[in-house]
Amino acid sequence: MKRxxxxxxxxxxxxxxxxxxxxxxxxxxxxxxxxxxxHTELPTMAASYGLSIHxxxxxxxxxxxxxATLETHLFSLVQATQTGAEVALTLQPCRVLLPxxxxxxxxxxxxxxxxxxxxxxxxxLVSAEAGYQLHSDAFQVLLGVENVAPDEPLPTEGDDERVIxxxxxxxxxxxxxxxxxxxxxxxRAFQSLSGQPMGNGQFAGTVDLDVDHVIYGDxxxxxxxxxxxxxxxxxxxxxxxxxxxxxxxLDAGEAASCTDVLAVQ
Length: 265
Description:
This protein has about 260 residues and is of the alpha+beta class. It has one domain. The chain has helices at about 1-15, 25-30, 110-115, 225-235, 260-265, and strands at about 50-60, 65-85, 85-95, 120-130, 130-135, 140-145, 175, 180-195, 205-220, 235-250. Strands 1, 2, 3, 4, 5, 6, 7, 8, 9 and 10 form a ten-stranded antiparallel beta sheet that branches.
């Protein structure tokens, strides 16, 4: 039982640490044309997009000699304001889908994800040989913590004043829900986008990630989630990783919300 919970906690928290990345089989991606747009004119950005991110990470457990594949899907609302080739972007997380592990499924409520403060980043449409490309600075997504500078480490203790009970469940940080417990966490993800215009007004490309994640405790005194995650992570090596995204324009324009993003998921 300990091994199963160790795998579940480690997989779920590792997946959360990668939540700023993805490019999956969700309907938001299904309509992407196979070839990039060949337009040489400066693209006109839509007012809002559904951002679908798919992260695939392959790990190896040295002690057990086993290999695992973690696939995490994240859906966000992105609003864009374009001035020539410069674009101001604002990102609001909407939903994260975690991979099952050890027979257990971890979840984070959509309502919790949507309580994260919007993150802003500058982007540019850059002319390239094959057409224009979109490149953004890094969004900084914080969940369960606040007032942490980009170059500061995340607080490690749940009673730190920068750790907030974002989901109002009388526990530090945000909660990852399992069938018999909740795991209390804090997370910071830097994510930048690099892609190109596709058909139907979409953009697609890769995501660059830099992530910090801390566990502050759990609701089950029989399971030391923090200890189990640290134990499992110490013997786990990342073999490969791939993080991709698709931006799909939303009909709601400036009035778009997470409801519009999830309606087409």
